[in-house]
Amino acid sequence: MSVYEFKAKTIMGEEKSLSEYEGKVLLIVNTASKCGFTPQFKELQALYEEYNDSGLEILGFPCNQFASQDPGNEQEIQEFCQLNYGVSFPMFAKVDVKGDQAHPLFQYLAKEAPGLLGSKAIKWNFTKFLVDTRGNVVSRHSPQTSPKDMKKDIESLIAQ
């Protein structure tokens, strides 16, 4: 099994198979527009601009499960991300990332890359999952991890 077996709706409402990203390094992030970590959009966009031509894709999945920090609809979220942070990486429709209604992709990510002390639960916005070019989940990074601190990991996966 790999992340390529999943589908998700884009922020524009189109169904997209993650198999379209086969051969790319993926950084999958659950995002929120009104969170203390929201400024990470700027660093994510900088990573995208620096490494996209080398094979990195960043996939943003808005989530409103943590303190209702992304209450807007898809259009509001997209406008916020573009206007405030110049986000040009792919954004997807709002999803749940924990609980019974969690999107199957996030159920898979959480199972493949457990968090602190083996916890499978995603505990907050801006949890980041790094996926290699074969669709294997390589690592989970906490919300406190700055995207720019992931450069070495990204570079090593691109070089494989």
TrEMBL record:
Signal peptide: none annotated. Residues 138-160 are annotated as: Disordered. Residues 148-160 have a biased composition (Basic and acidic residues). One of its GO terms (biological process) is cellular response to oxidative stress. Gene3D superfamilies: Glutaredoxin. Residues 1-159 form the Thioredoxin domain. InterPro entries: Glutathione_peroxidase, GPX_AS, GPX_CS, Thioredoxin-like_sf, Thioredoxin_domain. The active site is at residue 35. Keywords: Oxidoreductase, Peroxidase. GO terms for molecular function: peroxidase activity. SUPFAM superfamilies: Thioredoxin-like. Belongs to the glutathione peroxidase family. This is Glutathione peroxidase. It comes from Fictibacillus macauensis ZFHKF-1.
